[in-house]
């Protein structure tokens, strides 16, 4: 043949760098629930160099502004469904740009607030009942959303908390929309240190005693008309798996718990990914945020420097070593796990490594109530962290389990 058949210029190529490739998969995965378009993500990725966070921020930030402007134009012409869809894509593109920015950079806050703005516009355009809520803790204003499904009786509510870099809006796209389809109302909430909290507070740090915000969330949820404790389920995503387990260990009013995945020892979990324990760094090898610009690329590339900086800032620590020492406080021991009497589901991917699988199994055998575990596989394209590559399957497993547990509970 004289030439090959070419049907388009967009190619299915990711990144050689595993972390940036994971972030691309994270964005692609949300296409299942309207958070992205596969072709658009791949087109953007083609213009981003490996492990180049600045190029990523520019590409997704520019795309988000274009998508939001398109949504506004469609809304002005009365095309509500089209506007809703484009606003949701813009919301998630702003989140992607927000991810690689320093949390103390003004652009981080700008992209975060733009993501929130586009999300609320999507809810209005789609006629979805979404009410912004606020919680107060230690002088911080903690944002949340209460979302009600059409025709809801108000007797089933799924409260979801994300983790280190997830946002309220991404949580809605990745898990909340699937829950609404199945008749659950939503309460998406955050705590100190989380991305959404940084948008409204100049500085905020993660705290191990997350049950304090959990108590306030449960109090307000159970004040809703028609909702009783058995109808209140709690789900934790990523680092939110720790938050949710910690809440459930101190809060008996949770009707069911889904941990994706259950983190009971954050220090062991984090050190397993890097293969060493920075808590043992010598004075000569330790570093703080101000030292990062002086570390050569041959030792630490730009992407890793930004991730290390955000880790220290988000945990409120002066150095990398002190950050990992602080992580030791983020634990739920077996005695606390034994206080969890509600039905529990542990979700984990086989590709996450030995430590997440070990902690999942410790959780399942330590809680007092019914406990199930589901391990997602590479064959399903769901073996990665939080099943970003197959969110539909993850939702099916989690939501079907929740429906079946509640159905079983209603007959005994």
TrEMBL record:
Q: Which GO terms describe its molecular function?
A: hydrolase activity
> Where does the source fall among the domains of life?
Bacteria
Q: Fetch the InterPro entries from UniProt.
A: AB_hydrolase_fold, FrsA_esterase
Any idea which UniProt keywords this protein has?
Hydrolase
Q: Looking at the keywords, is Membrane present?
A: no
Q: Please report the name of this protein according to its UniProt entry.
A: Alpha/beta hydrolase
Which organism does this record belong to? Castellaniella daejeonensis
């Amino acid at each position: 043949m004289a030439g090959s058949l070419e049907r388009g210029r967009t190619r299915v190529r990711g990144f050689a760098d595993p972390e940036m490739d994971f972030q691309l998969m994270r964005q692609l995965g949300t296409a299942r629930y309207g958070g992205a378009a596969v072709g658009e993500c791949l087109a953007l990725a083609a213009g981003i160099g490996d492990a180049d966070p600045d190029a990523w921020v520019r590409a997704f930030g520019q795309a988000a502004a274009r998508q939001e402007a398109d949504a506004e134009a469609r809304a002005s012409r009365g095309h509500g469904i089209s506007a809703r869809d484009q606003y949701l894509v813009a919301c998630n593109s702003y989140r992607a740009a927000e991810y690689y920015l320093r949390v103390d950079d003004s652009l981080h806050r700008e992209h975060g607030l733009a993501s929130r703005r586009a999300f609320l516009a999507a809810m209005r355009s789609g006629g979805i009942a979404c009410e912004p809520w606020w919680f107060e803790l230690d002088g911080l204003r903690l944002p949340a959303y209460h979302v009600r499904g059409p025709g809801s009786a108000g007797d089933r509510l799924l409260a979801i908390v994300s983790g280190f870099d997830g946002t309220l809006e991404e949580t809605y796209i990745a898990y909340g929309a699937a829950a609404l389809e199945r008749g659950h109302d939503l309460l998406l909430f955050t705590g100190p240190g989380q991305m959404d909290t940084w948008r409204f507070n100049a500085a905020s740090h993660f705290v191990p005693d997350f049950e304090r915000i959990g108590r306030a969330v449960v109090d307000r949820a159970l004040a809703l008309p028609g909702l009783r404790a058995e109808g209140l389920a709690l789900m934790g995503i990523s680092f939110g798996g720790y938050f949710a387990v910690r809440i459930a260990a101190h809060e008996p009013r949770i009707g069911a718990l889904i941990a994706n995945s259950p983190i009971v020892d954050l220090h062991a979990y984090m050190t397993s990914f890097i293969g060493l324990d920075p808590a043992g760094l010598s004075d000569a090898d330790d570093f703080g945020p101000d030292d990062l610009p002086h570390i050569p690329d041959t030792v630490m590339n730009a992407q890793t420097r930004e991730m290390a900086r955000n880790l220290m800032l988000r945990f409120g620590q002066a150095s990398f070593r002190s950050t990992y020492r602080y992580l030791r406080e983020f634990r739920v021991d077996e005695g606390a796990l034994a206080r969890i009497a509600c039905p529990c589901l542990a979700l984990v991917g086989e590709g996450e490594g030995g430590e997440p699988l070990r902690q999942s199994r410790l959780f399942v055998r330590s809680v007092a109530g019914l406990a199930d575990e589901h391990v997602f596989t590479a064959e399903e394209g769901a073996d990665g962290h939080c099943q970003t590559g197959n969110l539909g399957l993850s939702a099916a497993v989690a939501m079907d389990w929740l429906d079946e547990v509640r159905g079983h509970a209603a007959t005994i």
